[in-house]
Amino acid sequence: MTATSAASPLVTLTDVAVRFGGEAALQQISLTLLPGRIVTLIGPNGAGKSTLARVVLGIQKPDTGNVVRRPGLRIGYMPQRIKLDDSLPLTVDGFLALGMPGHARERRAALARVGVGPLHQRPVQQLSGGEMQRVLLARALLRKPDLLVLDEPAQGVDVAGQNALYGLLAEVRDEFGCGILLISHDLHLVMAATDEVICLHHHICCSGTPESVTRDPVFRDMFAGHPAANLALYTHEHDHEHTLHGEVDAEHHHDH
């Protein structure tokens, strides 16, 4: 990778809008994803987060606006969940091999990199939530991605497992230099390793760096005494605040 390509955007969205049945799922979305940068997208259920992920992935075509991807861009996608037939005998190695032909040693190396190397012959149905998430991350890494897109990667994982997973993502970013778009609906899942946090509610309500957010007195007041105060990193520069789960807080809403 040249110095120029290392600095050039992976994906750029400009004034993107997506509508379903006349309703705006996304509107006025402008966003740039860069190599080596972790961007966390937060917002309540139904805010358009997965729709935005599909736009980035190229699965969803916007109704208006522009999407520009770096030529030859490789994206690794870690879905929110994968439904597997419980009656299908499938090992972890077999699961990785599905639709991802390659050498077994590459699959073993990917599993080892995410800390689950010994599980390669374990039936996928016997994996814990945390183990399955790591297997899904290994699957995404096999694509040698320039950009990792992870949709709610900590679902079904306990807090210790969440912290370990987020630490692993930061290591992957540092090691491979890839950009990461991480999607979550819970503020307390936004980790300290995030470079940028974006709050989405069909439009981008706010965005900021962890450094700016931790100095925000509104943030401190909202999360004082809550475990999220140590992990949730986000800022507001608009006319309303959000509760822990993303809903607009009427008490802090300010009319123009």
Describe the protein in words.
The protein has 256 residues and is an alpha/beta fold. The protein has two domains: 3-74 and 146-252, P-loop containing nucleotide triphosphate hydrolases (Rossmann fold), CATH 3.40.50.300; 82-144, no CATH class. The chain is built from nine helices and nine strands. It has helices at 3-7, 49-57, 92-97, 104-113, 129-141, 159-176, 210-214, 217-223, 228-231; strands spanning 11-20, 23-33, 38-42, 64-69, 75-78, 147-151, 179-184, 196-201, 203-208. Strands 5-6-7-3-8-9 form a six-stranded mixed β-sheet, with helices on both faces. A three-stranded antiparallel β-sheet has the order 2-1-4, covered by helices on one side. A hairpin with a 2-residue loop joins strand 1 and strand 2 (23-33). Residues 225-256 have low confidence and may be disordered.
Number of helices: 9
* Annotated CATH topology of the largest domain: Rossmann fold
Spatial arrangement of strands, main beta sheet: 5-6-7-3-8-9
User: Roughly how many Å apart are the termini?
Assistant: 48 Å
* Integer average pLDDT: 79
Domain count: the total is: 2
The CATH H-level homologous superfamily of the largest domain: P-loop containing nucleotide triphosphate hydrolases
H/E element string?
Answer: HEEEHEEHHHEHEEEHHH
Task: Quickly give the structural class.
Answer: alpha/beta
| Rg, Cα atoms, Å | 19 Å
Largest sheet: 6 strands, mixed
- Strand runs, count: 9
CATH class of the largest domain: Alpha Beta
Q: Give the name of the CATH architecture of the largest domain.
A: 3-Layer(aba) Sandwich
Q: What helical percentage do the residues reach?
A: 25-40%
